Each structure stands twice: as C-alpha cells, then as structure tokens.
Amino acid sequence: MSTILDRIKAYKLEDVARRKAARPLADLEDAARAATPPRGFARALHEASATGYGLIAEIKKASPSKGLIRADFDPPALAKAYEAGGATCLSVLTDAPSFQGDDSFLVAARAATRLPCLRKDFLYDPWQVTESRALGADCILIILASVSDAQAAELEDAARTWGMDVLLEVHDQAELERCVPLKSGMIGINNRNLHTFEVTLDTTRVLARQVPEDRLIVSESGLYAPEDLADLARYGARCFLIGESLMRQADVTAATRAILSRPLTAQGGA
Ligand SMILES: O=C(O)c1ccccc1NCC(=O)[C@H](O)[C@H](O)COP(=O)(O)O
C-alpha cells in the first residue's frame, strides 16, 4: 500500500519533469549564480548551540497530517516574528499540494530577515538543488527515507557545489547508518514517521546516542514545550526544528521566546 511519502515522491517527480521542460538549465544556473550568497546555516546552528539551543523555526501553513495549521499566513511577517523571538534559522515549506507552500514564501521570508533559510521540500534531482539556490536557499533537506544512497550523495554534492548546507533527515537506525559515507555535518532526527504520521520523541532519545560526535543533531517534529527541548538536550540534541506548535500561536514572537526559555546548563540539561 502506498504511503503519503510515496505519493509525494510520485507527484514531485512529475513536477520536476515539468519544471525542467519549462526552464533551460543554463537559465536556472544563471539565477543560482546571481542569488545572494549562502548565509551559513550550519555555522549559525553550531554557534547558537555552543551556548544554548539552536532553533530552526518553520513557516508551515498546512500539513498532510494536520490539514490547515494557520489561516492568517504571511511568510515575511512570520519570518520577522521568528527572528525577533530568537530563532537561529528558518525552514520554509515550498511544496504546494501537501503543505500549501510556495517557492515565493521562501524568497519573501529570506528577504525579510537575516536568518539562514532551509528550503523544506522533497528533493530527488540535482536540478531541484540548483533551483533551491536560485530561490535563495541556504540549506536543503535530504530525506533518507525517500532517496537511494546514490541519490543522497548526488544531491549532497550538488548542494556543496553551490555552497549550500545539507540537513540529512533520518527516522531509524538504518537511515542513520546510511549517513556515514555522506559529508554533511547535520543530522536531523525526525520524530515523525513520514509513512504513518506517528510522532514520538523516543525517536530522538534512541537515535541521538548513536550519532557520531562530530555531527550536529537536530531533533525535528512534535516539539511543543520548553520541557521537550530540555529533555532531549539530555540525550545530546541541542538544535530543534519546530513548526506546528509555533505556527498555531497568535503571538509567534512570544511563543518562540517561550519555547527557548529553559537554557542549558553546563551538564547539557536545563
Ligand atoms: O508534517 C507532516 O504532516 C508531514 C507529513 C509528511 C511528510 C512530512 C511532514 N512534515 C515535514 C516535517 O518534517 C515537519 O514539518 C517539521 O519537522 C516540523 O514538524 P512539526 O513541529 O511537528 O510541525
């Protein structure tokens, strides 16, 4: 039986084929070269997590698991609200069919702040990596559950060619082991199973201990309270990717400050 991730992959491959047919590669590469330089996504997270938490705050209108999350949706205003609240980086969903995202949201959010931005989308083809840079992305996501080893290496190489960082996303031990030959220093542990939508912070509790020490851990999804961050910090996660729980708040700046409000101690807990 096909899962949501299978369905996303199927329509994404068709969408990429359409986009490639509509835009010559040379034109896309010109746009990528003309984009403002990458802002150092991984560097920002390393710096923030040296003394506290690194927060990737997500601009997310809707999702397959929750439907519409935020009706009052203004990406530049949300980007500014996150920046004022202390976010380290932004994640912007650009996928339309499942998340009501749009490429223009990334462009507008990045232009509104100085924060490095992740293009949160489903990438299978190096063409999409070049497109991400042309849109201004500072980082791309590679979802190990949805690509082969060869595809992951190819996407990573393309991102490095454009000076972008890469967040490698895993959900189980087998996917984590597949990251070993890859070069990116950031491992995102997604607490959400993208096939079943089940969310448990135990995913981070179990996998974080197995991540090599030279990689930066980002715990993703299902984070609602400062206590969640403090708890996962004890397992070695100092960086977090949070969408829904912040997007549901009227005052996004206050919510961002609040979730970051339990700072780390020297022992790594709060
Ligand atoms: O959010 C979903 O329902 C979803 C379904 C299928 C594939 C991906 C999905 N989400 C992408 C994400 O990983 C999250 O947007 C991100 O980690 C933030 O999660 P949350 O804080 O729970 O909104």
Give the rounded overall mean pLDDT: 96
Task: Point out poorly predicted stretches.
Answer: none
Query: So what's the CATH class?
Result: Alpha Beta
What count of helical segments does DSSP give?
13
> Which value, in Å, is the CA radius of gyration?
17 Å
Number of DSSP-assigned strands: 10
* Strand order, sheet with most strands: 1-4-5-6-7-8-9-10
Instruction: Report the structural category.
Output: alpha/beta
> What percent of residues adopt helix (DSSP H or I)?
40-55%
Q: Which ligands occur here?
A: the ligand O=C(O)c1ccccc1NCC(=O)[C@H](O)[C@H](O)COP(=O)(O)O
Pathway: Amino-acid biosynthesis; L-tryptophan biosynthesis; L-tryptophan from chorismate: step 4/5
Enzyme class: lyase
Domain Indole-3-glycerol phosphate synthase: 5-258
EC number: 4.1.1.48
